[in-house]
Amino acid sequence: MLVNVLLISAGSIVYAVGINGVIVSQGFLSGGIMGISLIGHYLFPWLNIGLAYLVLNIPLMLLGWFGVSRKFMLYTVLGMVMFSTATGLIFPKLPHIENPILAAILGGIICGAGVGITLRSQGSGGGTEILLVYLRKKLGLRMGAMSFLSNALVLAVAAHFFGLERALYSLIFMFVSGKVMDSILTSFNQRKAILVITDCADAITAQILNRLHRGATLLEGTGAYTGSSKKVIFSIITLTELSKMKELVFDIDPHAFMVVNDTLEVIGKRHGSMQDI
User: Fold this and answer.
1) DSSP secondary structure, 183-231, as one string
2) Lesser CB count within 10 Å: N end or C end of the chain?
3) Alpha carbons 44 and 39: distance in angstroms, whole number
């Protein structure tokens, strides 16, 4: 619980720094609930961004409560309160960037990092993130891509009020933010799927179990050209374990054939014994 609170708090603070330090100072726009809050603030400067964001989140809070997870929503409510508070209190005096493209990139990096850090917890900072988590849970869609598409709708409306040029700079900000968010969400849990075709499957598997302390599954394979049967080793490892995996495989069988694939996500627990995957 403490880790989740710390992640939500840190992510909310980082995001507030990006909003007040870059986005608002440059007059950029955004999408989703934050975009609506920014539009309201630009049209009515007395309107507090954090308060508007909190009020507009109420319908999505109900969706998250009944459609995602009540535990998730409890942390999300904390995230929304933390963000609203941070937005009202944190006004960093960052150096003004004259080039709007560079400012959009910087804002995207900061805000994307803030959202990514928050989503590493068991909650979120609210806004369309609740809807994105819901769609990710139901459909398995990538959050960064969904965020970019959904935010574009609000941005199109904003372009009507504030001009196309500002909307295009804001589009750069949103694109960078989505990419940074995806990177943070996947980099901490990056896995490699390994396939090894070898005549020494038993020896290599034993080394995977004993040296890497990773599970493995033996698949039955048949060579298309020779028709001979071979065992295929399938295993999931971390990026830091890849070099060790290559070393132990080719030390035992220099003629082994090894395939390394990136995995977008690894879900589920190992079945059977603790050594199987």
Assistant:
1) HHHHHTT-EEEEEEEES-HHHHHHHIIIII----EEEEEE-TTT--EEE
2) N
3) 8
Statement to judge: residues 87 and 149 lie in one domain: yes
Tell me which amino acid residue 155 is: L
| Residue 70 resides in a domain | yes
d(CA 177, CA 113): 7
C-alpha 69/C-alpha 161 separation (Å) is: 37
Asked whether residue 167 is assigned to any structural domain, the reply reads yes
CB neighbour class for 82 (10 Å; exposed up to 12, middle 13-18, buried from 19) = buried
Domain of 248, in residue numbers? 191-263
- Residue 269: both structure tokens together: 């627990």
What is the CATH number for 200?
3.30.70.120
97 and 228 in a single domain? The answer is: no
Task: Name 186's bridge partners.
Answer: none
Domain count, the chain: 2
Average pLDDT over residues 28-40: 85
252-269 per-position pLDDT tens digit = 999 899 999 877 666 665
In the chain, % of residues over pLDDT 90:
18
* pLDDT tens by residue, 76-87: 788 788 888 888
